[in-house]
Records
---
Amino acid sequence: MKSTALFYYPCKEISSLRSLLCSAERQFSMNPLFSVFGPDGREAIPYSAFLDSVESLGTVLCSRGYQKVTAMILGENSYAWACSFFAVVCGLGKVVPADTGLDAGELEAIARNCGVDLLIYGEKFGETAEQLCRSLEIDGINLSDFPALCAEGQQNLADGDLSFIGLEPAPGDSAVILAPSSKSKPFVLTHRDICRDLQGAASMILCDKDDRHMALLPWSSQYPLCMTLLFPMVRGGCIVIGRGMRYITRDLQECEISILSSTTALTGEIYRKICSNIKNKGTRKEREVSAIVRLTGRSTAIKRRIFCEIRDSLGGKLRFILNCGTPDKISAEGLFSYGIPVLQCFGLSRGLPLMTACREDAVRAGSCGLPLPGTVIDIYDRRADGTGEIRFKRKEGTEDSGTRAEEMRSGWLYTGRLGSVDRDGYLYVLGRKENAIVTQTGVRIIPEEIESKLTGNPYVAAAALVAFRNENRGDTDLVAVLAPDREAMRAEYGPRYSKGQVEAELAKAVAAFNATSSAQKQIFCFICEPCVRDADLRRPAVRAEITAQVQSRYLRRLAGIN
């Protein structure tokens, strides 16, 4: 497979998460590792202080008999969360990062499935934690006691207790168990699995000790855990723990973030806000911006200088947005046109490996980049249009611990995602195989591809494409279920905009799509449904529910009844 990447950035081999931390501390001892928000504002914590905290906490846990444990960590991103994570994976056992949005019953079921025997929790989740500890008959450690625990550990170290210091996990030891829900099989990641991904990402994505990474997404998911907690340590970067979505703009500005790890939905929201701000300045400004975008071509450096006002609104230091998920080509291309590249990665949320990444100097809008070193990407069951199921394997033939037997065939991991690869080896992910719509004439339509184009319209906040069989014409009707963007509607029509105005804007969006689409992809009609959210549409069950909900309205439209 041909690749336009001329070289890989050098990266030292990492054998375990403990070796990652110790190596980073030796190289970047006094550099800031964390920027945390406290009572007196932002505080910088260097690599050396973090290692001291980890060793102190690990020592006291070890002295209390917590060895070979499976610890669930329930809490929001924090310095204490990070210390607890490393204290466990650096020799005491493995971690189950818990989704803070789940209820106590779901957390209990996950804990039982994963064999959890220690709960580490934030003060905010005290009531839930007490309930879990009683039900599971396990010990709990409150992160509000973190300073006292570290002080106790420091005293133990001073007294000569080196039991934790001597621990060293093997590459094949389990490090993290990912369990998104009690109904899904937990995925066990070894130190080797995680470190291999970190090395691969570092060989493709250039960052250094001067970069400041925003840790906004919860560490309970694989991508944020790897890319915002672990990846910055490879190059000595600083991890800025954000205060939540509500404060994202302020945190970007105050902390001078240079790398933002994001989701497709968040990246799209950032782009829409930029467009809305430009639109609010009038038609003349919109035309001026469009002309500058055309004249500056593909030069990121020129765009950054000219659109410095836009970059200043995001802190002024933002080098790129690091995104994982199904790409949104419109948002990616739009942000690039203002000098903000979106580096798209591809990996699966089920605890499986990072497969591709973008090079900052070779971005292609809508692409997830090139395969990581030592990996191969292929398109299986390729159709005439070049699309098929994405499959992946490592050249040395070793499998990842998180893979299921049914997903592996002859050494290939079948991802369940549809996509294509261009002549230079760049991967384009279109959507989930299970969401694909096959019309009665045999045409395969990928809903996510059409949905991303519809949400490129400023008045469409979310879109779901569903299909119904039309017996009269012997084919399939495509129906777009659209949620209007309330903010855009208020900006255009005022706070008391009408239902008719919403319907008119959505109709224009569908008409614009149909005007540039093939006959097989024409949308028959649209249905306005304000409750549809982009984040929900990743789950096939949600799509099936939406289809059932709007079927009666589709039949009324088919019969010509409004």
---
Amino acid sequence: MKNVAIKIVSSVLGLILLTVFILSYFYHKADDFQTASQNAAFSSDELLYTLNSIVNETDFVETLFINNPGGVSSAGFKRTAQNIYKRHTGIRAVEFMTPDGKIDYFYPSDGSNLIADKNFLTDPDRGPEVNFAIKTKQTTVSGPYNLYRGGYGLVGRNPVFYTDDRGNEHFLGIAAIVLNLPTAIDLPSFKELINNGYEYRVWCVNEHNENITIIQSDSFKKGKKTIEVPIPVPNHEWYLSLYPRKGWVSWYHMLTLLVAEIAFYCSYFLLVHNYLHRVRSLENINKARTDFLARMSHDMRTPMNAIINTADFGLKESESTRLTGYFRQIKESSLYLLGLQNDLLDMQKLEKGVVPLHPEVIVSGRIIKNVLAIMDVRAREKNITFVTSFKNNFQDCYIYVDKLRFNQILLNILNNAIKYTPPGGRVEWTAVSKRKEDGNYEVKHIIRDNGVGMSEAFQKHLFEPFTQEPNSQSVREGGAGLGLAITKNLIGLLGGTISCQSTLGNGSLFTVILPVQAAAEEQIAGYKTAVSVKSTGYHLQNKKVLLCEDNDLNLTIAVRILEEAGMTVDTAADGSSGVEKIRQALELQRAGTAGYKMYDGILMDVRMPVMDGLTATREIRKLDTKIPIVALSANAYGDDVQRSLAAGMNAHIAKPIDKAELFQTLSRLFNNNPSEASL
């Protein structure tokens, strides 16, 4: 039977391969165009990003003049210009043109005598573009020009306007950056185009309606059939033209395809059985790995819960400064280990594609504030200057996002920047928001440091899991090499992008663009109501709970946490005992026993002897009770939360116990519980 199936599959496969060969010729050219288009799009994106990253440096000059409308000193301009000049090798000069059209500020000063007396408002070559930038009030990249200082290059202009206290707008001048060609856009992707057999040309149409070449490969020939990709440089449109050196399609390609198909068909019988066997083996290995990680997660989180919460008790009760220091070190080390474990679990979930998103309404500034509070402390601990800039008033918007994942993305990148920057260094975080036509937002986070940087070779593997470039900082700081791999996957999950520029020894620049959904009016109303309720406290005094936990130490810790919140706690050592206690409690309640108080809720461990927590929950639900049940478990892997909810639980809290999360969850469930329990 198996041989017959293989023959049928093989015959069908032969017909498919023949059909593929016949159709390939007709589609091959379209495929070549598509591949070339993808290559061109990638190169144009890199070119646009590079230009923007350089020209956006004029923002620093703009800020300098807006903050000093009465006048900027030459020394102040020089300091700002020097910092910009050092960051980009393609910059020829940094300049500022005053409203009268004169270049009164420039760096470096070489060749300044060639431009100092020129009026750029009336200059026949530069004037139209200067006036265009002023009229549109937008950053503009124009050229290429034969530069007055010598050479050939582009000019990025940023018109600077200042609004006074009366609301009157004043034109202060134009901040400009002069870029050398081709140094400023000597990009790796253009070298890859040549290596992949393409010839290219970047060009634009100037104010005289002439096609002007900006940069092109040495062997580019006009007249060839090209594809063209627009490049929306600031306030202008450039184009990238591309064609393959050996032509769009050839019979050599088709012959290669035919040989490959025959070889594949002949090798099918030799490979199919081995392939199926290996697939089955890999499935077994993956299942074993998943089971192992699930068990390890539970076994590690159980003692971790005891360590972290015992350290908390020690910090609260210790009167000795030395002992307090010991407890703090224990807690910090435990949280570090917990973070590594969470990274491993996150990576496993992302690889399996089972990471659910839990969006909620939040004020945008709160995410920024939370992240800033954490990283500011971290920067001060390392004596690092931490500079922030948040533009376009994204602080007070109601947004609908997965707060946990947004925080995780920003914390991972900022923590890396501080981690790989030696003491005395500098980390800059700039966030720029843009309101889109559909009412939602797009937020760009730019994180720059002057730390150890990365080699070009390592950057190709930057977002791969378990990778770290060995250097003094990575050896000192440690880590599993999962942070950026997780971050890239999460950004992709949220529909965003991440890119990196880095030079070994000169720091790194990460750019993250994240789409953000604006909250609807009904969502905002619900959020305000929830905040109002939350501000009144947890309301846990005199609540009675049943705690099912088989680990004596974790039982003691949980009882103490609950009793300190004012609750009465009854305990059970396994799921069977817990079910029996609920059965007895229901009988007493139905009998109207005087003075008896029914349980307000149940905290249920998942893995217990005799009867596990999931089975116990199902048994309790058969007793027709709607009493809230919360999984308080070390199971935090894969589908553990879904299994808990499917069994009939109302919520799942992972160990180690987060007191705030526990109290908030219990308060919500108690106040929403429709049963006859004392609520």
---
Amino acid sequence: MKSHILPISILFFLVLIFFHKIIFTDQLVRGVDIIPYNLSVKAFLNNAITSKESPLWDPYTYCGIPVITKMQPAVFYPLDIIFHILSLPIAINICTWFHIFLAGVFTYFFARELGVSRFGALISGILFSFNGYQFAHLISGHTPIFRSLPWIPAILCCLERSISKRNLFYALTGGILLAVQILTGYPQITFYILIAVVFYSMFKGFKNIGFSFVIIGIGLLAGAIQVLPVIEIMPYTTKCSGASFDYLNISSFPPFNLLTFIIPEIFGDGIHVTYWGEWFFGEVMGYMGILPLIAITIALCLYRTRITMLCLVFMLIFLLIAFGGYLPLAESYYRLIPGFNIFRCSARAMVIFNLFGAILSGYGISWIVENPKRLRGILKWLMTLSLIYGIIVTWFCLDKTMFWYHIIQLMLSSGRVVEASPAFLLSMEFATPAYYLSVYGAIKSLIWLIISIIVLYLWSRQWLSTRLFKAVAVIILVIDLWLVGYKYIQTVPFEDIQIDQETIEFLKKDKSYYRICMLGFLSNVGQRYGLCQADGYEPSIHRRYSELTNLCNNMPLEKSFPLVRFSRWHNLYNLLNIKYIVGTANIKITGLPHIKHVFSSEHNSIYQNFTCFPRAFIVHDFELHKPRDVLKRLAEGSFDPLRSVIIEEKPSLVFKNMPANTKDTLKILKYSLNEVIIQAELEQPGILVLTDSWNSDWQAYIDDKKARIHIADYVFRAIELTAGKHQIRFVYQPKSILYGMIITLVTLGLVVIVLSYWIRKVKN
């Protein structure tokens, strides 16, 4: 183990350098999803635990959503315990840089297990931790992906060791690590790991397929506490219930973006110049460094072994997966092969592509160190390549901006650019800096190519000592990756992302049950401050809720996106219990007499909707419709939700249409995360409508007797009540979590017994 101390120390030192902004300051790492989503959901979990409540149901987003089944909150992930010990900003920062460090360490050990030299394995670890794709994801704020990174090489390392040692111990360990990865909350990466594990064992020989099944079986069983709730909710989400191919095709890796492996800024960098390529920059940038590309080429040309071919095959497999919708017949295999019809952003398969690219680069560097004299032949080809590339870059620099302007125009005419407005992109105000940034990237890559060739030449002549060559190679790689990645480590003071206290105090003064919606914010504010919210940002949105909000926004019902915003007023917003509309100070709402301005602070404005429906109410009439017809009826202006409710199953009671002045009383006695208690008194039979999202795991009890819950008005809950006084209790009781917990504990117990027996046997 002593021989590994230096490489691990170097990896840790590099983490300190790259992430000094968030390690040595009180700044919060800033990413598109970190502030609006990750920070909010962790605040919700902390508040729930502080209040001694189980964080099973979240009433603060989308009129209520399940928490465990969303996965991304990572409720059971062991390392996320720091969120309950440290402040949220510090915990998010540590979660980011520590997992990057672990990813490098486990990649190092995986490379060593494959026979890569210590120095080559160090290069592999550096490359997997700090490549451009990881940093582009950092600015996107995809912390669950960072949580997943370390466990990919760790699982594959256990698989390789179990195969090479013919020992089940390592397969069981790999299964536990797979369970840990499942608990990180990113099922798409889990899906890609399962593919990698199966293909890896098959490539090593079909006799080894059993080890992969052990890892997958133990992983799924030990992670059942997370797996079963997800399986239960899948049929109801937009991702798993008939999502369109266009939706699944979002952020496939464009073949054009292979150019980012050489010039990462070629389509803009998303910081200094707006990204103008296809999809979103954080998903489709693939830079790995110039020296690693040379090392990969050398490994494939001069060091052909079964393992280097394995790495090449895996790189090709996961590059093809990343291409996604760009492949011929992509829609067919998306529909036919299980799993591909669930996940969008297939470009995330680049994570595994990068891992095997890093391993292959480590092999190439190892060969270079061991065979300096044999480098001379390939250096001639590299010099020729650098000359050709230099001519192209020179021509590119002399062309000025018009050629670049025509390229942008061509991209726009093909409909490929999705992240910026055409008018802006076609302006010379944009084209000029875009051109100069791409020129900077091209010159930079040429300089690194020349420097790499010079260093390799000096090494081939033995004019550098082994230690000096290794040191120079590490420095070249680190500076190259630093110049690409450092700008994506953005920070923000924690106090700058808080909603001002005056706004929160105003909303908290209203003790009634209501919901808010946000204008001018991309944030699940409700989760952070305990305010129920009708809109928000959630990756796994319930299909029905998505369709209802699309109806309100006059959008195609099948269109799905994790961000729900209310862009135009619709009378159904009253049914959603939206009482307050919160926006930035400059937000103005006009032309709606029922919505009036009621509060202003330095940063925020609040408008009140005076026609908002109560959270719960009683009706004495119903309409029976099939699910596909409910939205049509809701859209009709003649439908009044306060007088009648639309249900999808025939009620057991007989209802009489009552006059509007019926004297019914209703009071909410308790409203917590997993329980709602309502007291109601009716003159005649009626239906209680609770405008909280329906879910099959909610149970209802009327005077302690179990009752049926109807799906009301497409997304809400309703129960039938006889005349008289009743106490109604809604309780969230997800059986899948209970069953999953039992399976997880039993599996872990059996694995511990087997591993303990094996360890004792080895000692004896």
---
Amino acid sequence: MNKNRLIKILGTCFAVIAIVAALLTIPLTLVGKNRFRVSIETLISESLGYELVVAGDIDLSFFPRFEFLVEDLRLKNPEFPQELASARTAVISVDIWEFAENRLRVDELLLRGVHINQRTEADGRNIWHSPQLLDSFGAGSDATELQQLDTGTTDEGYISVGRILLEDSSVDFQDVTRGSNYSLRDVTFEILEANNNGADFAAEGLATLALFSAAHAGEILVPFNFGAELAVDSRARQATIHELRLGIAPMLAAANATVDWQQGALEMRGTVEASRFDLSDFLSGFELSGTDLSGFGLPGIELNGVDPKYTDSAISTLLSPAPASFNFGFNLDQTGFTIPDFDATLGTASIDADFKRLSATASNSPNLNYSIRAETLDLSFLDTKRFAFWQQIALGFIAGRHGNTTASIDIEGVTGARSSVGELQMFISTEGNVQNIELQPLAVWGGEIGGLLRVENPPAGEQVIELEARLRRVDFNSFSEFLTPESLSNAHSLSSFGSSFSGKLSADLALSASGDEASMIADSVAGDITFDLRDNTVNIGLIKQVFSSISALSPVGGSTENWTDSTSFNQLGGFITFTDGMDEPHRVNLIMDNLEINGSGSIDIVSGDFDYRLAFTLLQNARVEPLFINDAHRGKPWPVNCSANLSAPVSQFCSPNFAGVRELFASPTSSQTSSQTLD
């Protein structure tokens, strides 16, 4: 029978209770240390299918109360190599007079140094699963039904615990199938007057959630506290959570729920609500500190140009607040998890969403359906550094593999601290091994962008990526700043090169690649990029430098002194064609009125090194000729080597191939030389 994650966690808790109950019902004639050790280890093995090793000492005290002290307990599932749980010490105080009335009364259960492993293997099996444990939660076995007919009851007796205290403990969660890994540390957990007869009791605790973020190459620590008033009725097989409070400063969320487990099927229904809190302050608790990251969570990024007083935290302390609230109802059962109506506010904007995740079955993969609708959102509390930190998590959710998926996102608009976008419409669909993410034309950077991303993950082999994208008249400076923001510029920043151009950029991209990492994708990319830059202004300092060096070798002279430092071109456009990755030779072409730059080369995105062999040609009979020296320089493909690193100044990017320049000046005719060179 398919069991969801919550059933697994509850099953683990019930298993611990069963272990304690079994231990305490052993007849007192077996309290001799060795016999007790063997008996409890045998009982756990036969009833739950686990191996319990009591590696430490066992003490028994009769005064002032009947008390067991057990040291160094280790629990293991023989089907898996990893240990399930361990405890440094366990102290159990029992009211032995309750046994005679078929009641189990534990005055106190004190556990110290507990460590629990909760792991799902690559084949989907949970390390806590054993045939005996699964049978104990199965839907009404024949033996159970016969027992209920014979006894007329569904419960063995009354259990109560005056106090349960967990100290100095931790829990590790790992799901290999999803690649998730997190833990609870410094866990302190206390329950007062726990029972199984439906009477209310209270629970409170503290813990620290530890998340390792691969996207940010660091560990995020989030302290939180929780408390609850609840009731468990084992005869009715029902639990009620009157109020569950979860506090993660400055947010306090409250949940109310009922839990039923009838015939092995668990159902949970309830509501969750969080009143107004500051989302900006809340997010800061999840962000890496400056001492634990390079460039605020982005691998390999230096803190160039960042005010030192802000390097002790991931974000500026001067960011505006973001008041938020939310509430939703939910339902969890064997079919899956549903949030029919999620309502939230962010500032003055309302957000509405629904969510449904259907569990996997023998014939179908998990199925995820969700939609998000919102008014214009004010995200000015996300500065550049914070946006860079959180965008990878948001993109991971949108582009993540969640089984078969159908989703839509419709937001009226987004305003930020430095820019804004128009209506955002996105559609996500995943079926089998293929995922499509479609972005409808989005008004941004003074123009619009849109496109379709297709990702295929075959059962065996690398993922295949196809991208079709369109940019229409976007502001080039805003676009390049988005790609390489100044505060996050790395060793290979294109910001200095990008600042040489301004204008309205239009482009079409049709690319494909394979691989799981950026370097693999770059090394396998194939396809075309065509572009043009209208209303442009270009810093032609590098071009002047190249032609000044060329004219210095000219037998007839020539000068670029009449060229302005920057100019505008009526035609500025070109293309890039990849055939076997960016690190293999690919063709580039750029026409700037009467100047054509044509050739091929490669670039290594990891090191930032590039090496291109280009021809700079001043075209003859061009309609507009903003660049002119004399006829000796026209119609000839001047050989230029562009070999440097992206971190170098732009002035060092290119220089003429002087041997080739001399040969061209010595050529008999420009047209003949041009034809031979291009061939």
